[in-house]
Every structure is written in structure tokens, then in C-alpha cells.
Amino acid sequence: MAITGRRADRAAPAVAVGIAVLVLALAATASGRGTGPGLSAPWMAGAAFAVGVDALSAALLPVVAGVTLLVLFFAAAAGTVNPARFHGLMLIFTAAVLITLTATTLPTLLFAWEIMGAASYALIGFHWSEQHRVSSGLTAFLTTRTADLGLYLAAGAALAGAAAGTGSMTLAGLAGLPEPWRGVAAAGLLAAGLGKAAQLPFSFWLSRAMDGPSAVSALLHSAAMVAMGGYLLLRVEPLLAATGWAATTAAWAGAATAVLLGVVALAQTDLKQLLAASTAAQLGYVVMAAGVGNAAGGAAHLIAHAATKSGLFLAAGAWLAALGTKQLAGLRGAGRRWPALGAGFTVAALSLAGIAPLSLWATKDNILAAALEHSGPLYVTGLAGAVLAAAYAAKAAALIWKPALPDTPSRYDAEEQGGREVTRWQTLPVLVLAAGAALAGLLVFGPGGDALRESLRRGDGGPQSGPLELTVSAVLALAVVILVWRFSARLPALGAAKDWVGMERAVHAVVVRPVLGAARQLARFDDAVLDRGVERAAAGVLRAAGGAATADAVLDRAVDAGAAAAPRLAGRAAIVDAAIDDGVDALAQAVRRAGSAAPRPQTGQIHHYYVQAALILVAAAVLLIFVR
Predict the structure, then answer these.
(1) CA dihedral defined by 372, 374, 376, 378, rounded to 10 degrees?
(2) Integer Cα distance of 283 and 364 in angstroms
(3) By the 8 A CB rule, do 126 and 213 touch?
(4) How far is CA 511 from CA 139, 141, 260, 516, in A?
């Protein structure tokens, strides 16, 4: 932007909303064309920077863009500190999410994944002057970054497989990698997806992410970063299925998260913490869908969850700014005071509970039907998570309609100071999102029912939820909601679950403290051993240098002495040289004379040869006589 300072702060909200409108129009256009639109450019050896739209990304692109628009509209209406920085970061974050959605190669995915993580760190710790918020952003960043190492592992495996002549760096080609690279790639992508989706054992970072502004929570938890973890596993579902063990691991990780984080959500007294835990629990169904091969059902659940959860978070943010509290006890009566906002929150909460005919009822049951075909115990575990979802959603909805208690304190760890009035411009996005949360479920019984059921159908044409299963799940959810609504004030205390079952403390005990302890020991070793060794080596080098200098001085003196004695030695050498030359000349002359005399006996007369032979025999006889 060419403007800075206060002018930028005044213009930023309108500019951000305008950009979001343009992005929504482009996303809708790309999705309307179906598969095909794409872009590819050379980037690195063996892989291109490539994005494209297929059936899966086409379904989610308008959802991400639409939720972003509504969240930015809410933020502009509510007002934020440093709006230029806030809206700029939100747009960068959204851009990274959209590239993640459309990436077709691993390098492109890594590029967007890294920007998305860095932007989330800046947004969670947006109020950087408050140390605990920066610490929360750092915890979320480091936790997800640890899981993100799996993406690099997968990229390395894909590169190795491509070098071997099979497989490629494209996401669609990962299932064709040879073993062991296929298993390595599946393990890496599974870790990265579970980390971003806040699944066990990484779930605790989502609790710390609640220290960010409410608008950030609404986007990050609904259609952006957390959702991208589940989306990644849906995208590589063929790879998970090809390995077998990866698909089973994903299914059970999702089911376990749906149950355990459902208990955590039910134990919360802080509305934002309840919604955060419910996000991890609901993303558990998306991960389960990837594990059981129901990518279409998982995508539908992502869409329904995006509308549902963003509406809940925006309503919570409006009440937080108005009342200065996010505690459920302090929010009693908020629905009565702002009935339109309360109605939107309630519709979204009932969708979260799985009440028919709202959206999450249909999508969740579709995933459970696929789980039942896969494994009976898996289905029972997922159904238990659905019961817990009805309970924690009903708890939140019930308390906002109950009369406020006269002795309820007015402030509880406020993110804002409170005292702001909820405007209709803040209420409008919540109502739109509540309508979105209801729409997919209503279509089940409307003219578009066949199209919706077809969109939920698995690629292999597996069985869908029948009327009996849908009725049972709807009745079960309704019964739980009625019971919780009636006895919400008497719900049992779940102290351990309120602290997210101590997951962060466990990670500190098992990972953080041992790593820091090892780092301290290595630092001591460095100071006590390595540094001293270097110092001693340096001292030895200095001593050796001193000795070398002394030896050099001795050599210099020897050279000087040799130089002084050189004339005498040169004279003597000349005499010896002359004597040698004379000896060589005398020897040469003797050889020459011997050579001249050698031919003389060769006269060619035979009697001369007889005389010579006789003389030789006489000489030999005389020599023999004397020798003996």
C-alpha cells in the first residue's frame, strides 16, 4: 500500500473487505468451471510450482473465501487495534490457505504451508505487548512446526522415489511411490495433517491459540489452518489407503480425538476454550473420513463445520467485546439481551450438536456410516463422540439463554475491556453463517436432496446413511440436548479435562524439559570440555610457534655462518674439481691408447695367431704352476 500510518489504518478495513469480495468472486468462478483451471511454472529440479482446481478444492474454495469475507467484515465492524497490520496479516494468511487448497505438488504445498504457519503465529500473538499472548503464539507455532517436519520427510521420500523412476513430486502421484518411500511419505503427511488439525497428541496448541483476537479464532478454527490439516489428509487419501496402516491410524486418531476432546469441551467454563476443543473433536471426523476412504463426506463435513464454527466464534467475540468476559457464567442471559445474535449462535450450536435437519447431522452421520463398514468398534467410538458433541453444544446454547445470576462477577480474564454495544453489522455475519450451518441439512429433505447425497457419496460407491441411521442419530442427539438443556447447571465437574487433560504439561515433561536439560548439559560440556580444549590447543599452538621461532633463529645463524664459510669451501671445491678433471682426462687418454693398440694383433696371418696362442698357453701354464 502506498499509504502509511493513520491513513493506512483508516483505509485497511475497507480495502481488506474489498479484496475479500474480489477473492470470493474469483473462487466462485474457478469452482464453477469445475476441474481444469490451473497454473504451472518451473521451480526446482523434478517439480514445478503448480496450482489447480479439482472436485475437492472446487468444493472448498468458495467456502474459505466466503468465511474470510464475513470474518473480515465482522472485524471491520467491531474495530481492531492496528487495523492495517491486522487486516494485512489476515489477507496473507488467507492467501496461504488458498494456495494450500489448490497446490498440486509438494514444493508448492510446502511453500504455502510455511507462510500459513508463520502468519498464524503473528496473528495469535497479535497483541505482542502482552507476553502470555506471544508465548501462546510461540507454543502453537512450535507444536505445529514439529509436526510440519513430516512434510519435509514426505518431500524427501517423493524425491527419492522420483529419482528411482517411479512416483513423482505431485500429490496425486504419491500413491505410486515404491516401498519403502511410499510408507515414509504416508507417515510424514499423516504427522503434518494431525498436527495442523490439532489431533492427538498435538491438540493442546489449539487451547493456546485462543489468546488471539476472536476474529482470528473464527477464521483459524473454521475454514483455515486447522481445517487444512484435515483437508491435507483428504487430499492424500489414496496414499493412506495404499499403505493400509496409515489409513487405519488416521481413522483411529480421528475417533480418539473426537471422544477425548469432546470430554474436554464438555468440561470447559470458558466459551472460547469450549469452542476450541470442539474444533479438534469435529476435525476428528474429517480425519476419520480420510482414514475410511470417505473423502467426499469429509469435505462436506469441512464445509458444514466452517460455517458452524465461524458463526459461533464471531458471536463469542461480540459478547466478549460487549461484556468483557468469555466465561459461560458471565454470559448467562446474553441471548436474551441480544436475541438476533443469540438466535444465530443457537442455530450454529444446534448444528454442532447434530440436530436434524441441520448440516453437521447429515455430514457426521455419513462419515459414521463409512466407519461402520470399516470397523464396528470405530463406529461405536465415533458415535460416542457425536453424543459428546450434542452435550457440549447444548451446554453452550443453554447457558446464554438462562437468566443471569445476580452475584455473577462482570469480568473474567477479559480479552477486551468490555462495554461495547453489539451492532447489527456484527450480527449480520453471524446470521449469514448460521444460515449456512443450516442449509446443507435442510437440502436433505428439499429438492436438492439427491444432489447433496450424491456429493456425499464415496468414490467407491459405498453405502450411505439410510433413513434408520439418520433417525437414530437425530433422536439420540435431540435427547442429549434436551437433558443437558434441562440440567446444564448440574453437569458434573471434570477438573482434569478442563485443563485439556494435562496434555501441555505432559509434553513439557516428556519433550520440552528433557530437551532443555540436554541443551544445558551440552552447554556445560561445551564450556567445560570443548572451550577448555580449544584454549589448551591454542596455548599449545602458541608454544609450538615459539619453538618454531627459536628454531628459525638457529637456522638463520647457520645460514649466516654458512654464507661466511662459503668462499673457503668454494676454493677447495675448485681444487677438487680440477683434480677430478685431470683424472678423467688421463683415464680417457689411456682408454684411447688401449683402443689404438687393440687392433694390432689382428694381422690376418695365421702363423701370427699360432704364436699368440702359444704365448697364451705358456702364460697360463706358468700361472697354474705358481698358483698351485
Answers:
(1) -90
(2) 11
(3) yes
(4) 13, 16, 21, 9
Q: Are residues 308 and 445 in the same domain?
A: yes
Contact between residue 463 and residue 233 where contact means Cβ atoms under 8 Å apart: no
Q: Is residue 493 part of a domain?
A: yes
> DSSP string spanning 425-482?
HHHHHHHHHHHHHHHHHHHTSSTTHHHHHHHH--TT------HHHHHHHHHHHHHHHH
Q: Alpha helix (H) ranges present in 79-130?
A: 83-102, 106-124
Confidence (pLDDT) at 449: 46
C-alpha 269/C-alpha 367 separation (Å) is 30
**pLDDT tens sequence across 407-459:** 554 444 444 555 567 888 889 999 999 998 888 655 444 444 455 445 445 44
pLDDT of residue 455: 47
Cα(392)–Cα(363) distance, integer angstroms: 18
Q: Which residues of 466-481 are buried (b: 16+ CB within 10 A; e: fewer)?
A: eeebbeebbeebbebb
Total structural domains in the chain?
Answer: 2
* Structural domain harbouring 23: 5-30+52-403+426-498
* 484, 393: one domain: yes
Burial of 208 (0-12, 13-18, 19+ CB in 10 A): buried
Residues 6+ apart with CB under 8 A from 130: none
| Same-domain status, 504 and 399 | no
> What mean pLDDT comes out for the span 346-355?
93
503 & 434 share domain:
no
Q: What is the rounded distance in angstroms from the CA atom of residue 133 to the CA atom of residue 473?
A: 40
**Quick one: what percent of the chain has pLDDT higher than 70?**
80
pLDDT for residue 419? 58
Q: Quick check: helix, strand or coil at residue 418?
A: coil
* Residues in contact with 167: Cβ distance below 8 Å, sequence separation at least 6, in sequence order: 158, 161, 173, 174, 176, 177, 178, 181, 182
Confidence at residue 547, expressed as pLDDT on a 0 to 100 scale: 75
Residue 337 has a CB neighbour count (10 Å cut-off) of 15
What are the tens digits of pLDDT across the range 47-83?
788 899 888 888 899 999 999 999 999 999 888 888 8
Q: Which residue has better confidence, 223 or 573?
A: 223
* H/E run at residue 49: strand 47-52
* pLDDT of res. 460: 45
Closest CA to 348 of 307, 293, 384: 307
Looking at the structure, tell me whether residues 432 and 534 fall in a common domain. Answer: no
Q: Do residue 485 and residue 525 come from a single domain?
A: no
CA distance 103 to 36: 13
